[in-house]
Amino acid sequence: MAQSGRPLSPHLGIYRWQVQMVTSILHRATGIALVAGALLVLWGLTALAAGPDAWSCFTGFTGSVFGLILLLGWTWALMFHLCNGVRHLLQDAGMGYEIPQFVRSSWLAVVVSLLLTVAIWAYLMAGGVL
Amino acid sequence: MSDLRNPLQRARGLGSAKSGVGHWWMQRMTAVALVVLSIWFVLTLLSMLHADFATAHAMLAKPWNAVLMIAFTTSMFWHAQLGLQVVIEDYVHTRWLEVSLMVLVKLLAVLFALACALAVLRVALAG
């Protein structure tokens, strides 16, 4: 950044750790991860349109160890972005602006996203995917 | 400062911000759509465990699934592009690079959304 000589706002190192900070950072991080996930959706759909060979190439990737690890990551990324996104929409509507409510809803987004991820993968494992 | 009026006084009477909240608003609109559509997307995928090519193809070819899938991919790339724009604006401080990246991201988002829509249509109309 250009050295303007203007005073800087307090940077990350100065703040005490708080859960709202973590959810804010994770929202952006999971959003970026989900962009890569969007490309996987693009690959899957174009493969399905292209025919059985392209499709088996796609499912070969998603069924590989590397693919499954990525899918697990994307599952949590989507669940977190979804839960925290709903939290943001409610806040945009003016709800939950007291600091204790902020802290509680942040933890709720983290915990519920993890529970949903576990539920989805428990279902997948029960279905014999792994 | 030569103008002693406060900012609100200066803004009054100048009319609305018009498209000033466009980015914010579309991010929320697509977010609301994606809450519903991504839940549908995940549930649909979960209902397709062990589906082979023919089953997956027939599933997507159903009209409702095809429509919802195009709605999902379109709002997904729209939302992604709005989010990436903010990330680029925050972290890329070289102006030409910032603008180039944003143009690239937006054009690719349109291209990918169109590719998804065409793929779904090819599957849906294949029968």
From TrEMBL, chain A:
Family matches, as Pfam families:
Sdh_cyt (PF01127)
Gene Ontology CC: membrane
Q: Which residues form the signal peptide?
A: none
Is Metal-binding given among the entry's keywords? yes
Membrane topology classification: Multi-pass membrane protein
Which molecular function GO terms apply here? electron transfer activity; metal ion binding
Which keywords has UniProt assigned to this entry? Heme, Iron, Membrane, Metal-binding, Transmembrane, Transmembrane helix
Name the coenzymes or cofactors required. heme
Which CDD domains does this UniProt record tie to the protein?
A: SQR_TypeC_SdhC
Q: Where does heme bind?
A: 81
- Give the quaternary structure: Part of an enzyme complex containing four subunits: a flavoprotein, an iron-sulfur protein, plus two membrane-anchoring proteins, SdhC and SdhD. The complex can form homotrimers.
Function of this protein? Membrane-anchoring subunit of succinate dehydrogenase (SDH).
**Name of protein:** Succinate dehydrogenase cytochrome b556 subunit
Native source species: Oleiagrimonas soli
Taxonomic classification? Bacteria, Pseudomonadati, Pseudomonadota, Gammaproteobacteria, Lysobacterales
TrEMBL record, chain B:
Q: What is its main location?
A: membrane
Q: Name one GO cellular component term.
A: membrane
Keyword Transmembrane (UniProt): yes
Q: Which cofactor does it need?
A: heme
Q: Which GO terms describe its biological process?
A: tricarboxylic acid cycle
This protein's record includes keyword Membrane: yes
Q: Localized where?
A: Membrane
Q: In which pathway does it act?
A: Carbohydrate metabolism; tricarboxylic acid cycle
Q: Name one GO molecular function term.
A: heme binding
InterPro entries listed in its UniProt record: SQR/QFR_C/D (IPR034804), Succ_DH_anchor (IPR014312), SuccDH_FuR_B_TM-su (IPR000701)
Q: What topology does the record note for this protein and the membrane?
A: Multi-pass membrane protein
Q: Which residues cross the membrane?
A: 31-51, 63-81, 101-125
Keywords of this entry = Electron transport, Heme, Iron, Membrane, Metal-binding, Transmembrane, Transmembrane helix, Transport, Tricarboxylic acid cycle
Q: Which Pfam families match?
A: Sdh_cyt
Q: Which CDD domains does its entry note?
A: SQR_TypeC_SdhD_like
Question: What's this chain's function?
Answer: Membrane-anchoring subunit of succinate dehydrogenase (SDH).
State what protein this is by name: Succinate dehydrogenase hydrophobic membrane anchor subunit
Q: Which organism is it from?
A: Oleiagrimonas soli
